[in-house]
Write a structure and sequence with these properties.
Structural class: alpha/beta
Radius of gyration: 20 Å
CATH superfamily of the largest domain: Response regulator
CATH class of the largest domain: Alpha Beta
Length: 211
């Protein structure tokens, strides 16, 4: 189930949007101001941010700019009553992916949200790492890293299963001549090259910790 953080200070509109999204199968956290939204982003991981711009204690553009500077790349959709090009431009400069002007058609909002989540759903992201399975492209800090074929497969295995213990046998299946020593050396190289928090679960396997 995809999870959305909805920031909207108009309580009636906020509840309407929340109910609409829940009926479509989304999990929704609803917040009403800048500080509350920031707190929720610290404690949760979302598939989409749906932000109003004019909100109590700040504005959505500054909030998104702070999140982007902190490395948060969650797709973000602005819902706003602002109509001037300058304000819209500021939103995109801050890192938003799309916007819709109030008043809007709820069906259109749903269509655009679904398209955005579908567009970003295939990507695997972890910190500065991003993997596109459709094109088998791995990027680290925006560039393709120098990594061997086997190490790349193991790294993708970790990215696909972060927070879960991966048993040694699962990793051995990707290696040509699997041994405990070879496995430890490869894991250490991956950890150092990409600054990953991979934990050794003694006697069982390894786990890429959640950010």
């Amino acid at each position: 189930m995809h999870k959305i953080l909805l920031l909207e200070d108009d309580e009636l509109l906020a509840q309407t949007i929340k109910n609409l999204l829940i009926n479509e199968g989304y999990q929704v956290d609803l917040v009403y101001d800048f500080e509350e939204a920031l707190e929720f982003t610290y404690d949760n991981r979302y598939d989409l941010y749906l932000f109003d711009i004019n909100i109590p204690f700040g504005n959505g553009i500054d909030l998104l700019r702070d999140l982007r500077e902190a490395g948060d790349k969650t797709p973000t959709f602005f819902i706003t009553a602002l109509k001037d090009i300058k304000s819209i431009s500021k939103g995109f400069d801050a890192g938003c992916d799309d916007y819709i002007k109030k008043p809007f058609d709820f069906d259109e909002l749903l269509v655009r949200i679904k398209a955005m989540i579908r567009k970003n759903n295939n990507f695997l992201e972890y910190g500065d790492l991003k993997y596109d399975p459709d094109n088998d492209t791995l990027l680290y800090k925006g560039s393709e890293p120098n990594i061997g074929t086997i190490s790349k497969k193991v790294l993708i295995l970790f990215l696909s299963n972060r927070g879960r213990i991966i048993k040694k046998d699962e990793i051995y299946e990707l290696m040509q001549n699997p041994t405990d020593v070879a496995l430890r050396v490869m894991i250490n190289k991956i950890k150092q090259q990409f600054s990953l928090n991979i934990t050794n679960i003694r006697g069982v396997g390894y786990k890429l910790e959640n950010l």
